[in-house]
Amino acid sequence: MGRRRILILLAIGVSALLIVGAAAAMAQHEDAANEVDEDEFTHDTEDLPVEPPTDQSHPGTEYLEQEGDTEEKIELGEQLYFDPRISETGTISCNTCHNVMEGGDDSRPIAMGVGGHTGPVASPTVWNSGFHHTQFWDGRADTLAEQAEGPIVADVEMGMPDHEAALDRVRGVDDYVESYEEVYGDEVDDPDDLEELISLENTVDAIAAYERTLNTPNSPYDQYVQGDEDALTDQQLDGMETFQDLGCQSCHSGPMFSGQWDEPESGEGVYQPHPTFEDNPQCEEYVEEYDLMDNPGRMGVTDDESDEFMYKVPTLRNVEHTAPYMHTGQVPDLEEAVRVMAACSLDEDPSDEEVEDVTAFLTSLTGEYPEQDMPQLPNPSGESMVPMDAGTEFEPIEEEQDENGDDANGDDANGDDVDEGDSIPGMTLGAAVLALAMATAAALVGYSRRLNE
Ligand code: HEC
Ligand code: HEC
Q: What is the average pLDDT across 148-173?
């Protein structure tokens, strides 16, 4: 009996110790959440079948968390991100060009904003953009918040005449006012002063907090780096080897494959020339075909000639989902992008098989997209957030049309190629032929009946 009681006491004692120990460990983990331990995403990769270009897996969303990134702020930022009503025409939101229901871009060569107006470059993905040291292809904004000020007033994006006009629309919606009060009420002198509460600073701060949650960890590549030898296919492993043999990781390094990640939003960008080998004959063709030297690159920001054709090294995470490629968005598919890079950045001419392998490897960088719910947007009661006359000053797109409705390219309004016979619309012509055929058939049937009688 005595022995049994001792055993029971011992069991209780051990359980209690285990519980206390676990609780302490959890508390420590919570403490560490904001200053992430690099050991958590740095791994021993030497014994893996092919040593990967980095020994770090995706550092996870915790790495980007900033003080004050509360659930309420992130939710407000998400609403603003999805709200097309803060664009001049009420039609274009951040999500129009950076669609988080897919690769975080717009699948277009160059972006199209209000009134169908297009800008000079392609929309980069917003997924993992919180890891960038600088924003934009040429790095002209340091932080996500600074970046977000641009599109609201860019006339080829959301097209508002000025920031105040956009903010006034937000200030007019009670539910938005309430959310701003909840998130920023304590930080402003007078929460009833709507101009102070719903300021540009607070607006882009909330959008940035939401964007910092848009991360895609746990790709097959990450699983491999963490030690799962079977996470990659044989072809992906071959491609990983070729990626390194060619030298791609000399620029696309680090866990984001962008050469820059460990000081997010620091303003210290990593820029590389593109093309480097413009005299490579293959590269010359690519430059011509894909307009690769039509823009000044970072020189447009610094005015410094040595920055001509310099670009921020883009992340390769989820790159299979962000075609078309390069800042001009003219390179149609991923294999071609690999060929362009090999010729123009490395003076290499990989075989078709090597290109296919590298492409297969790049698909292993596609991570888990966190699920996005379409937010319900705050709505004024009985009236529209978009004024009745909004966007009326935009020139209609058919400005260049001649009297046939053809534009200068000989396309009709649908972008279809048309020829001179276009003045009889296809549908009408088809219907007329069909009607004629039926009338003829009916007449023939009637005629043959009459003959039989
Ligand atoms: C009309 C399409 C369009 C709209 C609307 C738009 N963007 Fe962009 N975005 C772009 C283009 C194009 C670029 C690249 C411009 C450049 O580099 O010069 C870009 C760049 C960015 C970048 C930088 C990413 C990187 O890799 O450097 C971020 C982040 C971003 N946009 C977020 C936003 C947010 C937030 C909004 C809404 C406030 C928004 N965008 C609205 C087209 C758009
Ligand atoms: C010298 C530095 C450098 C090297 C080496 C390099 N890249 Fe790049 N990469 C860049 C830069 C800079 C860009 C952006 C160029 C542009 O938009 O014009 C880029 C763009 C890309 C893109 C398009 C990304 C997008 O979102 O449009 C892919 C894909 C890519 N690189 C893959 C590779 C591969 C594969 C290799 C090896 C064969 C490689 N890169 C070698 C610097 C480099």
A: 97
